[in-house]
Design a protein that fits this description.
Largest sheet: none
Number of helices: 11
Shape: globular
Number of domains: 1
CATH superfamily: Mitochondrial carrier domain
Order of helices and strands: HHHHHHHHHHH
Number of strands: 0
Structural class: mainly alpha
Distance between the termini: 16 Å
Helix content: over 70%
Strand content: under 5%
CATH architecture: Alpha/alpha barrel
């Protein structure tokens, strides 16, 4: 006899599982993005040399080739364990709790059927809420992921593994080290969540209600590509600041705002879009794999848990 499982539980499991699939499929692109983002920062960085050195990474493809040649294929997946841990906490909350949070805001803000503007506001509020909540829980995993992806540029491996990274950061920098960059990360992921989830939700809803497409893989694919594009454009500047600040040596920056100001003074506006191409490729690819997997896993779970129809 099928076990009764709530819709939220199905969403949580589907989101966490699908996000892990997406991370495994696109992790090398994320590593390339991180390497390009931290390249050229000050000599006090934990992993990057002096400011005057020649640029080592010049493009997404070039970065992937350079890392593979100098560090082996393993270098492209440095920090994958932390990345998967992050997704199990982060995406499970921000995506899995989105529908229930949206329902909560609907009951709180709207009496009856919502108008178009009210529906949009509800979606934005839900996206901001679940994105912020997810970061507060998953921040240490994000710090370890970024640190492990960034190392290897100088040939010196600071962390031998995921567990060693957690222990080293906690010992040398305290709990504050594991929560480094939490404020810019909350800002970044709240913005990404709105751009990503709200865009996916709204476009999918429009395609279905206008009968342009049916609820299937093509509809999910189009919605995922649009969500990935919006997320990349909106979140890239905050993402670069987050990566720089997380990877910085203690005391290099007074805070995330100081990091952003110094980036602008040293390199101008272009500094905030370093690694844009791999970031775009990674986020769009990630969204395609994640949303298609999420929808399929959810459909399979719902179908398998439906009680048999009476004869």
């Amino acid at each position: 006899m099928p076990v009764a499982v709530s819709e939220t539980a199905v969403n949580l499991f589907s989101a966490g599982t699908a996000a892990c699939f997406a991370d495994m499929a696109t992790f090398p692109l994320d590593t390339a993005k991180v390497r390009l983002q931290i390249q050229g920062e000050g000599s006090t960085s934990l992993t990057i040399g002096s400011k005057g050195q020649a640029l080592r990474y010049n493009s997404m493809v070039g970065t992937l080739i350079t890392v593979a040649q100098t560090e082996g294929a393993k270098g492209l997946y440095n920090g994958l364990a932390a990345g998967l841990q992050r997704q199990l906490f982060f995406s499970t909350i921000r995506i899995g709790c989105y529908d229930s949070t949206k329902s909560f805001y609907h009951s709180l803000l709207v009496d009856g059927k919502a108008t178009g503007s009210q529906t949009f506001l509800i979606r934005v509020c839900a996206g901001l809420t679940t994105g912020g909540m997810a970061v507060l829980v998953a921040q240490p995993t994000d710090v370890v992921k970024v640190r492990m992806q960034a190392q290897g540029h100088t040939g010196v491996l600071r962390y031998t593994g995921c567990v060693h990274a957690y222990k080293t950061i906690a010992t040398e920098e305290g709990a504050r080290g594991l929560w480094r960059g939490v404020l810019p990360n909350v800002a970044r992921n709240a913005i990404v969540n709105v751009a990503e989830i709200v865009c996916y939700d709204a476009i999918k809803d429009h395609l279905l209600t206008s009968k342009t497409m049916t609820d299937g893989v093509p509809c999910h694919f189009v919605s995922a590509v649009a969500a990935g594009f919006c997320a990349t454009v909106v979140a890239s500047p905050v993402d670069v600041v987050k990566t720089r600040f997380m990877n910085a040596a203690p005391g290099q920056y007074r805070g995330a705002l100081d990091c952003a100001i110094r980036m602008f003074r040293e390199n101008g506006t272009s500094a905030f879009y370093k690694g844009f191409t791999p970031s775009f490729c990674r986020i769009v690819s990630w969204n395609i794999v994640m949303w298609l997997s999420y929808e399929q896993i959810k459909q399979v779970m719902v179908h398998s848990m439906q009680p048999a129809l009476p004869l």
